[in-house]
C-alpha cells in the first residue's frame, strides 16, 4: 500500500514536471502541453503500453491528462472489437463520459455560484 | 525679419523655444497601486477593479473619464487630448469622451503612448496651433490582461520576467504659461525589432528600442548621460532596466545606476506580486505625474523621460513571432 502510493506520487509528479518543463523551457502554452499529453496517452494505449503503465503506477497514471487520451483510444478500440468500424465513434467517449459529464455539471454549478465572465 | 528658430534638431529630434509647461495634472490608480510605493503622491484611488461597473472594460472607460474630468472642468476650452490606450481601437478613451467637446488624438504605440502624447502636445503648442492641450494615458490590469494574454480566471502561469499592467494613470495640461517643469525637447523613436518574441519578457524586447532612441538623442543634441540628472524610463521593469544599463555601458556611456529610474520599478513595493515590475500605458504617466513631479522635479532637474512600447498584438504574435518595439523621448527640465 505505502509503496504503491509512493510510486503513484512519484510517477504522477514526474509527468507534471515534464508538463511544467514544456511550458517553462520550451516556451509552449498550457493548451499545447495538454493536447500533447492527450496525444501521447492515446498513442501509448494504441501500442498497448498504457494498461501496463496503469498497473505499475496506479493513480500516478490515471490522474494526469494522459489518461484521457488513453480513455479515448481504449473505449474506441474496445467497442470496435464488438461493433466493427462504427464502434470507433460509439466507443470514443464511453470510458471518458464520466470525466466529460462532470466537467459540464461542475462548470454549470461554478457558473451559477460565481461570476462566469469578467 | 527675424529668422524662425529651428525646431527640428539632427535626424529625429526637436528643440522647443516656447515654454511648454506641465501645469496641472491628475492621477488615479487601482487597489494594488494603493498598497504600493506611490500612495502618498497619487490623487485618487478606486477600491476594486470593477469600481461599480459591470465589466473591466467599462471600469477602464470610467478611469479615463475620472482622470480627465477634473482638468476638463477647470479648462473647458482646451480642444485636444493626446492619448492612447491598450484596447482595440482605443475604445475606452473614445467611449469615455462621448458627447464632450474634446477631440481625442489616440496613438497606437501601447506603453510608449505617453511619450508620444507629450511630444505631440508640445509640438502643437510650439507650432502655435494650440494654446493648451491635454496629454495623458491610462491602463487597467484586468482589461489589458484579457486583451493581450489570458483572462485572469484562466489562471495562466507567469514567469518572473513577466510584468504586471498598472491599473491607473494620469492626465496633464500642457500650456505655455504657468508654473511647473518645462518640456524643452524630444526625440521620436523608430520601430525596432531585435527578434525577441516572448510576451512574458517585454523588458528584454523594449530595452533595445529605448537604447536606440537614447543614442539618437545623444547624437542629435550632442550630449551624454552626464548632462542629465535622470533617465526615467517607462516600463522596462527590472529585467529591461538591467539590459539598458549594460547596453549603455557597452557603448561607453558612463551612466550611474542611480541615474536610471524605471516607472515600472517605482510604483510597487518589493513584496507585492508584480514579477519584474509594472507596465502598461498608464505606468509612466502615473509615476511621472505623481512622485516624478512632486519629488524629482521639485528641485532643479534636467531629465530624459523615455516611454517604451511593445507593438505586437496577440494575433500578430501567432502569425509573426516577433515583438516590434518603439521608444519616444522628451527632455523635461525644472528650474
Task: Report on the architecture of this protein.
The complex is a heterodimer of chains A (118) and B (335). Chain A is mostly helical. Chain A has helices at residues 2-24, 30-46, 50-57, 59-62, 66-83, 86-91, 97-113. Chain A has one domain. Chain A is built from 7 helices and no strands. In chain A, helix 2 runs parallel beside helix 5 (66-83). The mean pLDDT of chain A is 93. With 335 residues, chain B is an alpha/beta fold. Chain B has helices at residues 31-34, 56-74, 91-96, 113-126, 141-148, 202-221, 237-250, 263-266, 281-296, 314-319; strands spanning 8-9, 13-15, 21-29, 44-45, 80-83, 103-106, 132-139, 164-165, 168-175, 182-187, 230-233, 260-262, 278-279, 301-310, 325-334. In chain B, the strands form 3 sheets. A 7-stranded mixed β-sheet of chain B has the order 1-2-10-15-14-11-12, sandwiched between helices. Chain B has a 6-stranded mixed β-sheet with strand order 4-3-9-7-5-6, sandwiched between helices. Chain B has a two-stranded parallel ribbon with strand order 8-13. In chain B, helix 7 links the parallel strand 11 (230-233) and strand 12. In chain B, helix 6 packs across helix 7. Chain B starts with 7 loop residues before the first strand and ends with a strand. The mean pLDDT of chain B is 94. Chain A binds chain B through residues 23-24, 27, 30, 118, and chain B through 55-56, 142, 146, 151-153, 156-157, 159, 198.
Amino acid at each position: 500500500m505505502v509503496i504503491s502510493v509512493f510510486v503513484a506520487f512519484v510517477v504522477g509528479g514526474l509527468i507534471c514536471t515534464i508538463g511544467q518543463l514544456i511550458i517553462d523551457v520550451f516556451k509552449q502554452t498550457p493548451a499545447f502541453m495538454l493536447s500533447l499529453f492527450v496525444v501521447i496517452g492515446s498513442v501509448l494505449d494504441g501500442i498497448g503500453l498504457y494498461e501496463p503503465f496503469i498497473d505499475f503506477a496506479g493513480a500516478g497514471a490515471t490522474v494526469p491528462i494522459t489518461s484521457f487520451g488513453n480513455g479515448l483510444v481504449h473505449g474506441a478500440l474496445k467497442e470496435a472489437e464488438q461493433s466493427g468500424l462504427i464502434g470507433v465513434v460509439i466507443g470514443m467517449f464511453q470510458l471518458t463520459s464520466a470525466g466529460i459529464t462532470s466537467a459540464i455539471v461542475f462548470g454549470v454549478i461554478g457558473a451559477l455560484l460565481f461570476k462566469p465572465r469578467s | 525679419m527675424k529668422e524662425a528658430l529651428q525646431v527640428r534638431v539632427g535626424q529625429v529630434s526637436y528643440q522647443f523655444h516656447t515654454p511648454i509647461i506641465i501645469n496641472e495634472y491628475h492621477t488615479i490608480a487601482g487597489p494594488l497601486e494603493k498598497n504600493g510605493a506611490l500612495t502618498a503622491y497619487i490623487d485618487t484611488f478606486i477600491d476594486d477593479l470593477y469600481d461599480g461597473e459591470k465589466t473591466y472594460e467599462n471600469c477602464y472607460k470610467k478611469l479615463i473619464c475620472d482622470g480627465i474630468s477634473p482638468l476638463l472642468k477647470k479648462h473647458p476650452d482646451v480642444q485636444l487630448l493626446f492619448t492612447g490606450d491598450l484596447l482595440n481601437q482605443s475604445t475606452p478613451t473614445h467611449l469615455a469622451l462621448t458627447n464632450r467637446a474634446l477631440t481625442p488624438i489616440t496613438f497606437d504605440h501601447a506603453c510608449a503612448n505617453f511619450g508620444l502624447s507629450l511630444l505631440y502636445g508640445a509640438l502643437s503648442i510650439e507650432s502655435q496651433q494650440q494654446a493648451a492641450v491635454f496629454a495623458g494615458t491610462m491602463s487597467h490590469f484586468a482589461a489589458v490582461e484579457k486583451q493581450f494574454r489570458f483572462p485572469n480566471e484562466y489562471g495562466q502561469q507567469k514567469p518572473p520576467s513577466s510584468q504586471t499592467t498598472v491599473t491607473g494613470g494620469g492626465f496633464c495640461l500642457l500650456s505655455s504659461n504657468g508654473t511647473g517643469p518645462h518640456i524643452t525637447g524630444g526625440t521620436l523613436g523608430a520601430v525596432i525589432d531585435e527578434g525577441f518574441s516572448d510576451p512574458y519578457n517585454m523588458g528584454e524586447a523594449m530595452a533595445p528600442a529605448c537604447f536606440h532612441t537614447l543614442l539618437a538623442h545623444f547624437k542629435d543634441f550632442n550630449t551624454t548621460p552626464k548632462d542629465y540628472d535622470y533617465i526615467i524610463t517607462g516600463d522596462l521593469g527590472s529585467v529591461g532596466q538591467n539590459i539598458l544599463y549594460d547596453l549603455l555601458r557597452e557603448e561607453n556611456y558612463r551612466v550611474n545606476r542611480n541615474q536610471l529610474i524605471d516607472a515600472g520599478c517605482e510604483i510597487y513595493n518589493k513584496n507585492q506580486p508584480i514579477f519584474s515590475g509594472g507596465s502598461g500605458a498608464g505606468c509612466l504617466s502615473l509615476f511621472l505625474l505623481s512622485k516624478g513631479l512632486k519629488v524629482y522635479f521639485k528641485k532643479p532637474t534636467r531629465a530624459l523621460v523615455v516611454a517604451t512600447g511593445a507593438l505586437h498584438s496577440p494575433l500578430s504574435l501567432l502569425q509573426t513571432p516577433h515583438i516590434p518595439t518603439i521608444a519616444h523621448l522628451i527632455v523635461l527640465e525644472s528650474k
